[in-house]
Amino acid sequence: MLRQHLAEMGARPAESSGAWGSFAQAVEGAAKVLGESPALDVLEQGEEHGANEYREALEDSGVMESIKQQIRSTLLPRQESHIATLKAIRNR
User: Please, what is the average pLDDT of the chain?
Assistant: First the structure.
């Protein structure tokens, strides 16, 4: 969704997952070495960071309303669901 909006605005979306992809690979490696719990903590922190980024975008007057609507209706609820799932896995 966000890629489409960027393209419509004439911007070029990123082609890769960038730093987040590297971070996810590092967490996967850490889980193999340290175990599931520390990896879940790190993943949860990453998801919380993403949710906070979405919340900040909702408060930013420079963000298009159509993007804010997608954040409210789809992206932030998914992020919050991921956080809840990670908490449930960690607490089992």
Answer: 82
